[in-house]
């Protein structure tokens, strides 16, 4: 023991038992807090990421869960309305004791038809407005009154809300992604197209439309009012099934025509299909046509099949989908490209 002490003294260091015990205790406490902090870390693990990605690309089951997209690590946006969504809104109506009422004059609410609203707007210009030389200096994109009161929402044979039904059906059946390329033939005032533009990446929605007033409603009202100008959809005026302005290199995941081909001569429809076939992604891309395909059935089944085949197209079948909000169903006919 004297030998050990003498060696320690020769090195100039004296270590006592209490100091060793205290040092060990401090080290143990430090290690405890370090392990505790690591175990409570909320950092992402590879397994968590793989589960999130799988969920964002999964197809729902019969309970009504739909295809969706994960826009961030902790959010999931379904493409269509789910059974639990419907139950939630019904619960809210019941919880608030709500019942449909007549839309009559009441405190703070003065019901107007669109015609009355337009007349009021033209006469009174709103509660607060600029007069004289200042009248035109404060509105970056002046919009005609007819568009502001949404007269164009009544241009269709069914409610404006039906546009959402079409989007949900087409987006889910094609497993659409934000990166997909979509072309609508005859997008009108964007009753359907608005939902695609909102969902898709910028510049990924294209449309060919012939009606000038509808296009004015699109550019002067719908896109600005919905905050979608930054999405830069490519919408072109034309009525001859000419698609050259959309670029030769664009390949579409989905091309659809809602209640359009039935208003066109058969010859023009076939001209359009011939031009579109090479713009559709082989095998995975889809063409959907609503209501009927008389341009095809008038040729007879066998002749129609031959003509489609000559264009590299194949008819896959007929689908129906129901409206979420009103008693209505729509019929869609599906085609694909069979040649690369």
From TrEMBL:
<dbReference type="Pfam" id="PF08242">
    <property type="entry name" value="Methyltransf_12"/>
</dbReference>
<keyword id="KW-1133">Transmembrane helix</keyword>
<dbReference type="InterPro" id="IPR029063">
    <property type="entry name" value="SAM-dependent_MTases_sf"/>
</dbReference>
<protein>
    <recommendedName>
        <fullName>Methyltransferase type 12 domain-containing protein</fullName>
    </recommendedName>
</protein>
<feature type="domain" description="Methyltransferase type 12">
    <location>
        <begin position="183"/>
        <end position="286"/>
    </location>
</feature>
<feature type="transmembrane region" description="Helical">
    <location>
        <begin position="12"/>
        <end position="35"/>
    </location>
</feature>
<keyword id="KW-0812">Transmembrane</keyword>
<keyword id="KW-0472">Membrane</keyword>
<dbReference type="InterPro" id="IPR013217">
    <property type="entry name" value="Methyltransf_12"/>
</dbReference>
């Amino acid at each position: 023991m004297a030998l050990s002490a003498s060696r320690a003294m020769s090195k100039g260091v004296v270590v006592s038992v209490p100091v060793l015990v205290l040092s060990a205790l401090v080290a143990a406490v430090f290690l405890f807090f370090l392990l505790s902090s690591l175990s409570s870390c909320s950092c992402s693990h590879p397994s968590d990421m793989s589960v999130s990605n799988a969920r964002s690309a999964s197809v729902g089951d019969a309970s009504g869960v739909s295809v969706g997209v994960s826009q961030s690590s902790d959010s999931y946006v379904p493409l269509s309305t789910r059974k639990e969504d419907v139950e939630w809104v019904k619960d809210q109506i019941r919880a608030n004791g709500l019942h449909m009422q007549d839309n009559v004059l009441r405190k703070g609410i003065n019901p107007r038809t669109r015609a009355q609203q337009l007349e009021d707007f033209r006469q009174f210009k709103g509660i607060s407005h600029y007069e004289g030389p200042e009248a035109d200096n404060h509105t970056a994109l002046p919009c005609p009154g007819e568009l502001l009161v949404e007269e164009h929402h009544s241009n269709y044979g069914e409610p404006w809300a039906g546009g959402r039904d079409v989007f949900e059906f087409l987006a889910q059946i094609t497993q659409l992604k934000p990166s997909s390329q979509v072309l609508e033939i005859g997008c009108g005032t964007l009753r359907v197209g608005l939902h695609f533009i909102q969902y898709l990446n910028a510049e990924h929605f294209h449309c060919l439309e012939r009606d000038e007033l509808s296009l004015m409603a699109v550019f002067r009202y719908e896109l600005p009012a919905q905050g979608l100008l930054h999405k830069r959809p490519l919408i072109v005026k034309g009525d001859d099934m000419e698609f050259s302005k959309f670029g030769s290199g664009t390949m579409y995941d989905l091309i659809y025509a809602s209640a359009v081909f039935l208003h066109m001569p058969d010859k023009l429809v076939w001209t359009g299909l011939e031009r579109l076939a090479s713009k559709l992604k082989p095998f995975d891309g889809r063409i959907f046509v609503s209501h009927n395909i008389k341009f095809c059935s008038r040729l007879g089944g066998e002749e129609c099949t031959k003509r489609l085949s000559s264009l590299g197209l194949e008819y896959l079948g007929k689908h129906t989908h129901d409206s979420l909000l009103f008693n209505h169903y729509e019929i869609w006919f599906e085609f694909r490209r069979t040649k690369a």
